[in-house]
Amino acid sequence: MNKVIITGATGMLGKAVLQECLEHLKIDKVLIINRTPLGLNHPKLEEIILKDFSNIQSIGEQLKDYDACFFCMGVSALGMDEETYTSITYTTTKTFADVIYSMNPNMVFNYISGAGTDTSEQGKVMWARIKGKTENYILQKGFKKAFMFRPGIIIPEKGTKSRTGWLNTTYTLMSPLFPFLKKLSNVTTSTNIGLAMINSLFFNVDSKYLSNKDINLLANK
């Protein structure tokens, strides 16, 4: 059996990854961990409500025997100070990775990061430094495989929507261009991100950092 854990399933990318996992014949069970109920029923699906992710240790035993974690939880740094963004992006992810590694050291851990992430941790762009620090921690943790997904332009598919109002407006305005954009190798889709996450369990990937082009190639294997 192939069993996966997904965080951030209430967001656009998390929902897209969840949808692909529920539809995929090689994924047998999906556990989602959310702060609020998703309101979805499916034979493969199990949900744990955890309002405070710093208390992930409290559900540690329920996280045993999983093959992969698709960490899609995240927030925009827009209007946020560095201390708060670090707490949400780095500290929360670190705590989660520590607990889930203790339960499943041989799992695949995929992290949604972003194009322009700074693994030197020394750059001037705050969000890029913190994302880079988070990536570095995950990659050094010791998981069997770990991949940093760094999408740039993402086209939402299958009804997925962002929780950010202005972003949804942007997608609506750009929708006439979607058929053309999908042909570009440096543009990906929400569907391809989900498929690439799944395929990372079954195929060898040369790089640990996956750009849109890499995501598209992995999705279509």
Could you list some keywords that capture this structure?
single chain, 221 residues, alpha/beta, Rossmann fold, 7-stranded parallel sheet, two-stranded parallel ribbon, 7 helices, globular
Q: Could you characterize what this model shows?
A:
The protein contains seven helices and nine strands. The protein is α/β, with parallel strands linked by helices and 221 residues long. The protein has a single domain, classed as Rossmann fold (3-Layer(aba) Sandwich), CATH 3.40.50. It is globular.
Main CATH class: Alpha Beta
Mean pLDDT: 91
Task: Enumerate the strands of the largest sheet in spatial order, edge to edge or round the barrel.
Answer: 3-2-1-4-5-6-9
Distance between the termini: 21 Å
Largest sheet: 7 strands, parallel
What is the helix fraction of residues, given as a range? 25-40%
User: Which strand-content bin applies to the residues?
Assistant: 15-25%
What is the second-level CATH architecture? 3-Layer(aba) Sandwich
Shape designation: globular
Low-confidence stretches: none
- How is the CATH topology named? Rossmann fold
- Helix and strand sequence: EHEEEHEHEEHHEHEH
Sheet/helix structural class: alpha/beta
Number of domains: 1
Please tally the helical runs, counting DSSP H or I stretches of 4 or more residues: 7
The Rg value, from CA coordinates, equals 16 Å
What would CATH call the homologous superfamily?
NAD(P)-binding Rossmann-like Domain
Strand segment tally: 9
